[in-house]
What we know:
With about 250 residues, this protein is α/β, with parallel strands linked by helices. It has a single domain, classed as Rossmann fold. It is built from eight helices and seven strands. Strand 4 (about 80), helix 4 (about 100-125) and strand 5 (about 130-135) form a beta-alpha-beta unit. The structure holds nicotinamide-adenine-dinucleotide (NAD). Nicotinamide-adenine-dinucleotide binds near residues 11, 37, 183 and 185. The site of nicotinamide-adenine-dinucleotide has 30 residues, from helix 1, helix 4 and helix 6.
Amino acid sequence: MKRTRTVLVTGGAGGIGRAVARAFAARGDTVVVADRDAQRAMDTAHGLGVHGRILDITDEEAIASGLDAVQDEFGPIEVLVNNAGLLTVHGTLLELAGGDLDAILRTNVLGTFLMTQHTARRMVASGVAGSIVNLSSIGGRQPTPGMGGYESSKAAVDALTRWAAIELAPHGIRVNAVAPGPVLTETVSAGMPEGSPQRRAWEGRIPMQRFARVEDVAAAALFLAGDTAAHITGTSLPVDGGQLLT
Length: 246
Ligand SMILES: NC(=O)c1ccc[n+]([C@@H]2O[C@H](COP(=O)([O-])OP(=O)(O)OC[C@H]3O[C@@H](n4cnc5c(N)ncnc54)[C@H](O)[C@@H]3O)[C@@H](O)[C@H]2O)c1
């Protein structure tokens, strides 16, 4: 019989986060979507029939009080999906402003670290053998000109995944990442419409010749978080249609 878990999805009001929340909810889990965008967090929660919370993952005090409140209401968090990220700020090495790189790293690296640390502390204190899934990117392993700031942050997320995995294994807590190539969220679809030269050029880099659907990414997160992945920890699983092979 499936166990119902309390699952927290950061950035749960965004394109991938919403699909991840929907997948866990469909399994019967108690899902909390946490996002810094208050209106979209509440709209998403309402639309999916899950719970919504306002949370900025770069605000340590808000994380501590937010996690306590979730735990008080729904019991210990068993699954954390570190999905919130900043992926729209880009620039070449010669041009990217230092302040922009700082903002990328603050959300994608510091935010993911703080969420992992504060959630893992609570898992350890409650004796919960939980699971953490981070949203990385194959960009952390394969460069695309103009995207190096973002890609550096995702390489750090992969390192953070391995760091957390090796230190939390003695507590029975597993930590993995999903590393997509381009994913068909509303933002990506609007920026690269089907048939556009930019979209066709990128699809040409992908052996499976298409972008990932949000459901492809959600399925990988669900798998890594669950009992069928019980002996998998510290990995970053590409969901990229084979792009890393090229
Ligand atoms: N879309 C892609 O092609 C793609 C590819 C590889 C990896 N990813 C990763 O997947 C994750 C989700 O991406 P997406 O495409 O759904 O992005 P999105 O912009 O649609 O959603 C991101 C969500 O995170 C929230 N967020 C941003 N900063 C936050 C903060 N400080 N605190 C709380 N919430 C915050 C935003 O409000 C938004 O709802 C990101 O980590 C991204 O880097 C996306």
